[in-house]
Amino acid sequence: MTADTPGKIYILANSGARTLDFKGLETACERLAHHTAIEIIRTTSQEQASSETARLSAIPGNIVAAAGGDGTINNLLNALAPAGVLGIIPAGTANVIGRELGIPLKIGDAVKTLVTGAVQQVDTAVCDGRKYLFVAGFGFDAAVAGSVGGWRKKLLGRAAYHLAGLLSFITYRPPKLTITCDGKCYKGSYALIANMRRYGGELFFAPQARFDDGILDLVLLKRFSAGSLLRLLNFARGNGRFPADVAESVQGRHFIVEADRPTPYQLDGEVFPAAKRFEIALAKQPTLLITP
Question: 8-116 belongs to which homologous superfamily?
Answer without folding.
Answer: Probable inorganic polyphosphate/atp-NAD kinase; domain 1 (3.40.50.10330)
